[in-house]
Amino acid sequence: VIEELDVVVAGGTVVDGTGAPGFGADVGIAGDRIAAVGDLRDARAALRVDASGLVVAPGFVDAHVHSEVDLLRDPAHEASLRQGVTTHVVGQDGFGFAPASAAALEFSYAYLRPIYGDGPRVEPGGVAEYLAAYEGASAVNVATLVPNGNLRLELLGNSARAATDDELAELARLCEDAMREGAVGVSSGLDYTPSGYASTEELARLAAAAAAHGGVYVSHVRYPLGLLAGVAEAIEIGRRARCPVHVSHLRGDPEGGATSGDLLALLDAARGDGVDVTFDTYPYLYGCTFLAYLLPLWVREGEEDEVLARLGDPAVRARLADELAPSVDGWRRIALAGELAPERERLLGLDVPAAAAACGVEPVEFLCDLLLAERLDVMLLGVPPSDASADDDLHAMLRDPRHVFGSDGVYRGGRLHPRGYGACARFLGPVVRDGVLSLEEAVRHATSAPARRFGLAGRGVVAAGKAADLVVFDPGALADRSTLADCRAPASGVRDVFVNGVATLCGGDPTGATPGRGLRRAS
Ligand SMILES: [Zn+2]
Q1: Are 101 and 124 in contact (CB under 8 A)?
Q2: 443 C-alpha vs ligand 1 centroid, how far in Å?
Q3: Distance, CA 316 to ligand 1 centroid (Å)?
Q4: Ligand 1 centroid to 94 CA: how many Å?
Q5: DSSP codes, 68-129
Q6: Which of 171, 146, 129 is closest to 90 using CA atoms?
Q7: Lower Cβ count inside 10 Å, N or C end of the chain?
Q8: C-alpha count within 13 angstroms, C-beta hemisphere, residue 311
Q9: How far is the CA of 188 from the centre of ligand 1 (A)?
Q10: How far does the centroid of ligand 1 lie from the alpha carbon of residue 191, in Å?
């Protein structure tokens, strides 16, 4: 006998998140839980939602997203709702907003402005306070990693120097504190500061601290080593620390000499060596990050004023002209993005050499001039390749069973990558319809797989007793609509979304509800 239900989602095809074939069933919600899955024709319910012809799935988990500030600015988060995303894993790439002292937070808000823009700020504090800031204040649930850059900022500032033995022990202790407060793992972003100043040994100490609490080591790998060597370092860290590894936004770079096949072979070998590796990949062939990312790490050390002073120094520029000479040709595949001052807005969307030519200077000079003038607040956006075979390489990553869905979404103003508004809908809509993987398997990549990877207990599956995070969508209509020209066009095809049993999207209309929770790693 079923007790009185709050909601019955009736007559849909349940794709339950395990990868099992979809089946016809009603789903009953009581409070914040799924109470029953089956024939609920006779159950008494306050609300009955007809889902015939639609798919009912667990709410999607975005395993890699930069929404920390945007969720506070825009708690209803239509970008996520329209894609059925109900949980975000933040604190990625070795940077974020917790744990952080007042001074570290001040530094981070300034340093991370290109990614996050300006917006509401959190108070300084640890992971527990940070998760509480989203509790009942966001349409999605939020889980966080411990960014290794935050730990470094506390102890060493934005310094390139190696940690001493005492500092290594203290970094590991801070990491354990954050894990105890509910972080789901530790992240690094080894092309960013100060994260990238960490040695392999330092990262292995942090990974061991995370593993002691069931966490995972998540890494934007050290790309200047080369893609395969960067991934190999992440695997080595997992091996030394006896810690599972998750590689961020991983895809092949056939032009750079490493295909998806090479990457997947490396992961197979790691598994043979006892290291469990997963990864996220967003379904696009071009990326988006800070423009200052093009500069070597030594230029980006210290406070913002020190970095700017270096960019204005002719001796530094001469050294950069030498050091960056081999890279300049590749900058044809990198366009200017974000927001620029009105007198430079005409440069947005141009690739770096073209923008430099428009200003009548050499590309390296141009890069320094622009970053100085905009106080580093410029984004870059990759230029999509014209080669159609690149899609096959991407698809090999997306269909691999170790792939979990992650958008790498960014949500500041200006010209940006469309992935924040479209990656999930694109993966579960067009990518599935292209036959890359089945709907059931794609749903698994975006639900139970990330929930398991990040210790989100009781989520990611449609079954009695699980959290009532649900999405009701039309599998034929689910699609991204955001493009380079219109990066904030919301996705189509999702009709209803429930988060912790509360409707956040109902009949295609956002309800404005903010039932999201701060999710702690299950112990
Ligand atoms: Zn990222």
Answers
A1: yes
A2: 21
A3: 29
A4: 9
A5: HHHHHH-TT-HHHHTTTEEEEEES-TT--SSSB-HHHHHHHHHHTHHHH-S---PPSB-HHH
A6: 146
A7: N
A8: 27
A9: 10
A10: 11
Give the distance (Å) from ligand 1 centre to CA of residue 248. 7
Query: Rounded to the nearest whole angstrom, what is the distance from the C-alpha of residue 15 to the centroid of ligand 1?
Result: 28
Q: Helix, strand or coil for residue 150?
A: helix
Cα 457 to middle of ligand 1, angstroms = 24
Q: Ligand 1 centre from 291 Cα, in Å?
A: 14
- pLDDT 10s digit of each residue in the chain, 523 long? 556 899 999 999 999 999 999 999 999 999 999 999 999 999 999 999 999 999 999 999 999 999 999 999 999 999 999 999 999 999 999 999 999 999 999 999 999 999 999 999 999 999 999 999 999 999 999 999 999 999 999 999 999 999 999 999 999 999 999 999 999 999 999 999 999 999 999 999 999 999 999 999 999 999 999 999 999 999 999 999 999 999 999 999 988 889 999 999 999 999 999 999 999 999 999 999 999 999 999 999 999 999 999 999 999 999 999 999 999 999 999 999 999 999 999 999 999 999 999 999 999 999 999 999 999 999 999 999 888 788 999 999 999 999 999 999 999 999 999 999 999 999 999 999 999 999 999 999 999 999 999 999 999 999 999 999 999 999 999 999 999 999 999 999 999 999 999 999 999 999 999 999 999 998 5
Residue 227 alpha carbon to ligand 1 centre in Å: 16
- State the pTM of this model: 0.98
User: What is the Å distance from ligand 1's center to 469 Cα?
Assistant: 24
Distance from the alpha carbon of residue 221 to the mean position of ligand 1, in angstroms: 11
- Distance (angstroms) between ligand 1 centre and the Cα of 424 equals 15
Q: Which two tokens stand for residue 104?
A: 């570290």
Q: How far apart are CA 115 and CA 93, in angstroms?
A: 12
